Sequence to fold (290 residues):
Amino acid sequence: MSEVTCIWQIPAQLGEGPLWAAQENALYWVDILNRQVHRLEPASGQKRSWTFSEPITSLALRQSGGFVGTVTHGFAAIDLDSRTIEPLVPVETDLPDNRFNDGKVDGYGRYWAGTMNRQEKEASGTLYRLDPDLSLHTVDEEYIITNGPAFSLDGTTMYHNDSVKGFVYAFDLQDDGTVRGKRPFTQLTFAKDGAPDGMTVDSENCLWLAHYGGARLTRFAPTGEILEVVPLPVPNVTSCTFGGPNLDTLYITTAAQNMSAAELEKYPLSGSLFAYQPGVKGLPTPQFAG
Ligand code: BGC
Ligand code: CA
Fold:
């Protein structure tokens, strides 16, 4: 166990999508609203940021090299140095009020990502699966805000959040990528817990959930039982992933969006990147196989 430590003090509007790149010993993460990608080498403390012409809402490593990510309306190949976004598969180009949100690659190299209504009112968001052959599949619909796909250790359960209704759902995941048996895994009450945001599964098959507006991470057993609560010094905790040379550090993103001057004064580290060593390890970051 360790203390939660702020490792990059920065007022990210919407820090999200932490991704550990083992071959570089570096953590990448995005600030959706500031259209940025950030990179930190924890060992040296070296930091770098790139600003794009449009938001990158989630980022993944590609087996063939480089990055793939979700942008406002689709999946794209991303080149940081040239700041190029090369569209791969357009999605919802007819829905201007929507944008992509969270996304994650599973153990089979498939990219799962969902969309949301920017006004956070209409249930126009959909969870998609992009297979390595670049075929696009609709997984689940009618979300105001999709969030946090995550996968159990054996790959047979997919977790996904309806952030506005407060549900973390579990689905049975078949080998071919189809899901069945959607059921509530847990439900948060916004006033008390905040909204379920990003999440990751550890090497003991437990689920770490970021509470947006709830100022904490929670570790759940596969049964849904709460095993640990980790308070953060900021309200809007958006996502987490394991990284570090031993995969024993949780990297945690946060957001400063929609906070008043008084709230920002009270929680001055809002938007910053945090680290915590929970005493359990995570899994290597899967790469998109397309
Ligand atoms: C979305 C935000 C939203 C937040 C709260 C994030 O994943 O990107 O726009 O406000 O979740 O649920
Ligand atoms: Ca999110």
Observations:
- DSSP finds two helices and 24 strands in the chain.
- The chain has one domain: 5-276.
- The two ends are 38 Å apart (CA to CA).
- Residues 16, 101-102, 147, 197-198, 238-239 surround calcium ion (ligand 2) (CB under 6 Å).
